[in-house]
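Q&A log
Question type: sequence-to-structure
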Amino acid sequence: MEFRNRDIISIKDFSKEEILHIIKTAKKFIPFAEGKKYSDALRGKILSSLFFEPSTRTRLSFESAMHRLGGSVIGVVETTTSSVKKGETLSDTVRMADAYSDVIVLRHSQEGAARLAAEFAEHPVINAGDGAGHHPTQCLLDLFTILNEKKRIEGLNIVLLGDLKYGRTVHSLAYALALFGANLTFVSPKTLEMPKEVVKECKNLGAKPKSTTVLEKAIKDADVLYVTRIQKERFPDPEEYNKVASSYRVDLSLLSKAKRNMIVMHPLPRVTEIAPEVDKTPHAVYFKQAFNGILVRMAILHLILGGKTR
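Response status: OK
Response body:
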């Protein structure tokens, strides 16, 4: 398996074996991510962090991962402080970042932006989210979390809940879970159903996904409940958002209907879809999930930049 200088644009670009290799590599970085060990595997390497959409966990975990590996970070976190405000094109911004660094991490509102950026960059480009398109590193950390908590994916009953139409995290994850043989149930309002092309891809991989609007029914046999926020920023019409904003809420009453060992995941941030009291239950793993992002992103950076073996 060859990872060096490879772009990370979509989870579909990777085989099951390659995904498992990334996850296996990520586990080795636990003591480094916890600050118990030091690595200079990427000393002298520079990461360009180009975030043209808001981000907390993805941006900070990538930057933390690079620093934990001994590298450094430059970047843009607001378009108002960059030449984008002056009218500079994405291609020109990418060319400049490419000249200044060894890897580019890009978040952009336009679907396909990361793949476009990869055409203009000599160094690897990592997609940190492109509109309603893909979020491959989030998908990898989600798979890592499920395997770490459940020890397998094949045969698990996994419910994806919330904004399945605009949610790039669930688009990537549904494909990957189908690849690994999970049983999928999609729960959403009718207007936010999983796109037909994603459903078709899952079926082509051998999955038989179910769709429903009733969470209480779907949760009874679930091993994993993956919750997503209804994304106000993706709605062209605010009125349409208001109609579905409070469609689902995961609380203690709902969890009383679930298996005792079911885990609740969320890519975060959350708004009202998970009640705060859920945080203290054994079901909640979403903060562990967020930490796992550092491990997975350390593994990816190490692999594609040819990090020195410790």
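Response note: Strands lie at 46-51, 72-76, 103-108, 125-130, 157-161, 183-187, 210-212, 224-227, 263-265.
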